[in-house]
Structure formats: structure tokens, C-alpha cells
Structure to design on (424 residues):
């Protein structure tokens, strides 16, 4: 579909549309407003046989009918009809009622050259919105902005044109979904040491069982000693033992020092999957590997008519913890009876509080940047609870960095997590 011109004059509309007349509409379109529906331009239909008497195209609709193209055929559509059954009629802002992936509820796919969200511009999805956020991030909406979610919308707008994708609500919570999270357990940081940078925009979200801060930041406490003094029940179905340990011990069902960002988001109508990046740091390494004191990072995704489930785990299905398979930012050693090759070295620990210290001369460990992808249904409302907690005690904290949430039109058959080959 050609980009929509902003000020093109509307051609006169004949009362009865023939194939030839519809083909001429390929070169003209009306500009959209709240009162005047957008008349989309069409690809060139080629030479038309004016003597032909098309049955599909010559629909007999009145002169308000609009043309669009479906599977190579030009279709005459009533502005109030919602011909493609995507929830929007032309009169409600659908700029191509022959394509269910194009409507005001879609996201504008970067580089596509099309106006999927019917905004009147091409490739104009809102960009980064985290350039001037307070590191303390007292508002949960700022946590969403740090992830890359820049649109906040009403759940039940009166105007169908406003039924766009976006964040419906954002809240700081404990792991059991209740209030009481410590203010320093969440933060919006411009970096995490000299070697770890945002994956989108200018900031990243940090959640911690200690302080979500860097050394030198206000309220920072060393991860080996911080205690946030909160306790609650672990989420339903948790904790889970790790099969990566030779003799896994049952971790505690109490979630200490938990931190969670709880989001409800209306997914774009053309989205088929959602992805986000994260890096998990833990001071439980190396002294408490394969012990009952286990810090977790969990991403619980809830979809329509489906129970929420964790979408971030290693290749063996183990949750993200000190006992999982992804710890590669560290110094090579044997810990908890397991060898760690630490293929990513320890540079990403520098300046974070997790580097070598008098308390732990070997330093602690991190996963490095990973990316989780999970399937979604376009237009559905999803819940996403991103959380960390400490099982068993209040000491030796863990911090997770999360950033770069994005939608994709490519379907994902199931949830999965992989290493980011070339992080920013």
C-alpha cells in the first residue's frame, strides 16, 4: 500500500464504481481526520476493460463506498462495514479495510514502508522515551518506559480510533502481587558499570533483591550484605528446583526482598510475538551454588484464557537463578561441584558491585544479555510480571537488568530464551 499523502485532494466519486473507475483511485487518496475517513490509495491495477461487468467490484453500494485491494482484486467497501473483520471500519480509522493487519491498533513495523497503524505516516512508531528518567523511578510507568514501552492508553476509550496498543497499567509489587516493595529495589539506570549498556534508548530497568543501584549511587548497598526486610509467599507454583544441580535441594517457598514490575498491555493487532532482553547478576555465586538459598528471576506472562506461565528459562527448562545454565560472566572455577568455564569473562561485573572484593576475591557472576521471545495473539490484553526474589534468606542479593521490549509480526511457536550474540 502506498504511503498516505497528508493533503491530497479527494477526487469526485461516481455513484457506481466500475473496474476502470476503481483503478483510477490508485493515484488518489483523501487525508484522514476525526470526521473524514481516510480513502486509501491502491497499487496500480493495470489496464482496465471498461466494457467488463465485474460482479465483485461493481457492488452497487452508494457513492460513499471506498476501494481497497485484497489478494490482487479491487474491492468496494462500505465505510461502516469492517470488511476485513479486524475491529475497525474505514469510518473508525481503518486505512486499509482489506488488510486485517492494518488498523489503528497495529504497530508500525520499522522499515516496512507501510502505514500499518493508520497514523498518516510511514515507520513512525514512537521511539525511545527514557532519556530523562529519574534513576529512583518512583513511578512504575517510568519502569515501563525504560523497557521501551512508550504508549499508555485507556482500556475502554469511547472513540474507536483511540483503541490503540499500549500499556494499560503499571505497578510496583512484591512477588505475590501485593504492595510493600522497597523503594530502592527498583531503579532506572543509564548503564551498569562501564561495559553494560542499555539495549534500547538511554536507560534500562533494574530490579533487585538488594538495591537496584550502582556503586556511588544514592542508597546503594553492596550485594553481599543488603537486606530489604520484606517477605511474602512465592508466586503460585514456585519455587522450582534446578535439574542443573547434582543433588538439587528444595528451595524455600518464602520470597524475601522481592521486586516486581507488573504490567498490563494491549498487544498490537499485528503482533505475533513479544521479546525482551535481560541480564541476571547474583552474589549467591560462587559460595551458594546448588544450595537451598536460591535467588530467582521470573517473567510470568498471562494471556487470554490461559494461566500465566514463566517464559524465561534455560535450554533444560531451569529457571533463571544461580543454579541455571546461563552463568557465563565470571572467573573460571568449580562452584557447588559444577565447573564454570565463564566464556564471557568478568568484564561485565566491573563497576556493578558484583566484581571481586575482600568479601569474595573470586567475584560473583552474571548471565550476560539474554533474550526471551514468547507468542502473543494480536490485540489481546496480556499481563507481564517481571520479578526477582531471594529464597531462604535476606543476604547475598541478585539484580536483573531488563530492556529492549519489542513486538514482532513473526510468530513464535513457544517461549524460549537465547543468548544475544552482539549486545549493544
Amino acid at each position: 500500500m502506498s504511503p498516505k499523502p497528508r493533503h491530497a485532494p479527494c477526487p469526485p466519486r461516481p455513484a457506481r464504481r466500475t473496474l476502470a473507475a476503481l483503478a483510477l483511485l490508485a493515484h488518489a487518496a483523501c487525508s484522514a481526520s476525526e470526521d473524514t475517513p481516510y480513502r486509501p490509495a491502491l497499487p496500480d491495477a493495470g489496464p482496465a476493460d471498461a466494457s467488463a461487468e465485474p460482479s465483485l467490484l461493481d457492488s452497487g453500494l452508494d457513492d460513499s463506498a471506498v476501494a481497497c485491494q485484497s489478494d490482487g482484486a479491487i474491492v468496494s467497501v462500505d465505510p461502516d462495514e469492517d470488511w476485513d473483520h479486524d475491529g475497525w471500519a474505514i469510518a473508525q480509522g481503518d486505512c486499509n479495510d482489506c488488510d486485517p493487519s492494518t488498523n489503528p491498533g497495529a504497530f508500525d513495523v520499522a522499515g516496512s514502508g507501510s502505514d500499518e497503524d493508520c497514523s498518516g505516516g510511514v515507520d513512525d512508531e514512537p521511539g525511545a522515551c527514557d532519556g530523562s528518567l529519574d534513576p529512583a523511578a518512583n513511578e512504575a510507568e517510568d519502569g515501563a518506559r525504560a523497557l521501551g514501552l512508550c504508549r499508555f492508553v485507556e482500556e475502554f476509550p469511547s472513540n474507536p480510533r483511540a483503541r490503540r496498543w499500549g500499556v494499560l497499567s503499571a505497578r510496583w509489587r512484591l512477588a505475590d502481587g501485593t504492595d510493600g516493595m522497597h523503594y530502592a529495589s527498583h531503579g532506572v539506570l543509564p548503564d551498569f558499570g562501564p561495559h553494560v549498556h542499555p539495549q534500547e534508548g538511554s536507560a534500562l530497568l533494574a530490579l533487585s533483591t538488594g538495591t537496584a543501584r550502582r556503586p556511588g549511587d544514592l542508597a546503594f548497598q553492596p550485594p553481599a550484605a543488603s537486606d530489604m526486610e520484606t517477605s511474602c509467599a512465592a508466586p503460585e507454583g514456585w519455587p522450582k528446583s534446578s535439574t542443573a544441580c547434582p543433588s538439587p535441594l528444595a528451595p524455600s517457598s518464602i520470597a524475601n526482598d522481592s521486586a516486581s514490575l507488573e504490567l498490563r498491555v494491549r498487544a498490537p493487532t499485528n503482533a505475533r510475538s513479544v521479546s525482551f532482553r535481560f541480564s541476571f547478576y547474583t552474589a549467591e555465586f560462587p559460595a551458594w551454588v546448588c544450595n537451598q538459598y536460591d535467588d530467582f528471576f521470573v517473567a510470568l506472562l498471562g494471556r487470554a484464557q490461559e494461566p500465566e506461565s514463566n517464559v524465561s528459562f534455560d535450554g533444560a527448562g531451569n529457571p533463571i537463578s544461580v543454579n541455571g545454565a546461563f552463568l557465563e560472566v565470571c572467573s573460571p572455577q568449580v562452584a557447588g561441584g559444577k565447573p564454570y568455564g565463564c566464556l564471557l569473562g568478568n568484564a561485565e561485573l566491573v563497576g556493578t558491585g558484583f566484581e571481586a572484593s575482600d568479601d569474595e576475591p573470586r567475584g560473583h557472576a552474571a548471565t550476560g544479555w539474554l533474550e526471551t521471545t514468547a507468542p502473543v495473539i494480536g490485540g489481546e490484553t496480556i499481563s507481564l510480571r517481571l520479578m526477582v526474589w531471594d529464597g531462604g534468606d535476606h543476604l547475598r542479593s541478585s539484580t536483573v537488568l531488563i530492556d529492549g521490549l519489542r513486538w514482532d509480526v513473526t510468530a513464535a511457536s513457544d517461549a524460549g530464551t537465547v543468548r544475544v550474540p552482539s549486545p549493544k
